[in-house]
Amino acid sequence: MFQSVRVVKLLPVALLFLLCACSSGPLLLPETKRLPERVELADVPFFQLSDAQGGPSALASMLNHHGVISSPGLLDERLQQLAAKQDVQSGLATVARSYDLLVYPLQGSLDALMQQVAAGHPVLLMQDRLFGGPGAQFAVLVGYDQRERTLVLRSGNTRRWYTSFASFDEAWGEAGRWAVLILPANQLPAQPVKQTWLAATRALQTQGRADAAQRALRTARQTWPDAGL
Fold first, then answer.
1. Nearest to residue 143, comparing CAs of 188, 177, 113, 175?
2. What is the pLDDT of residues 34-59, one digit of tens each?
């Protein structure tokens, strides 16, 4: 009887702890906590939505950030041509590679995203519109604040859209945790993974971007001398 009373008293406390943990969002790794407390890549361009999902607008932000002058309208035309053969994510990657840029997929954790933003790399991603209608939408992550546990995105028609770690993680998870970097072939990401970089290099080569693929391979060999395709 004493044990039963004890369980009844402790159960609400345990539930409260779990609820608080869920509401605060994912726990960050120690190395992520050592990153700068607040980062915002203010120079990343912003474009208004050109379609419901925002793929052309988000890609235009990434391309212009790397000096490729383009617009959502022009990119939308190219993506429409690919729509019969590829899903939207694959189409965005194909178009990015056509400008000799490398598409580097990221692991599905908030830590992975924040590490890249801290290194100066905006992240192209897809998130579910939990509170803004059905379906998923592309966005560009450009900042975070560890103390406030918030993120800053170029999202929809909002240049600086703020969301909590918890809300973002839920929306990103619902959309499949897809996130990529779009990088010049001579620029490694933060904490690069050899096999991921080489796979992205092979994708450039397969698409016929031989010069860019060779630049990416030379870049890899500066860190991994034995790297090969």
1. 113
2. 999 999 999 999 999 877 799 999 99
Range of the domain at 90: 33-186
- Phi and psi at 40, nearest 5°, equal -145, 125
Asked whether residue 63 is assigned to any structural domain, the reply reads yes
Q: Tell me the CATH number at 57.
A: 3.90.70.10
Q: What is the 3-state secondary structure (H, E, C) of the chain?
A: CHHHHHHHHHHHHHHHHHHHHHHHCCCCCHHHHCCCCEEECCCCCCCCCCCCCCHHHHHHHHHHHCCCCCCHHHHHHHHHHHCCCCCHHHHHHHHHHCCCEEEEECCCCHHHHHHHHHCCCCEEEEEECCCCCCCEEEEEEEEEECCCCEEEEEECCEEEEEEEHHHHHHHHHHCCCCEEEEEECCCCCCCCCHHHHHHHHHHHHHCCCHHHHHHHHHHHHHHCCCCCC
Q: Please tell me the predicted confidence (pLDDT) of residue 133.
A: 58
What was the pLDDT predicted at 17? Answer: 36
Question: Number of structural domains, the chain?
Answer: 1
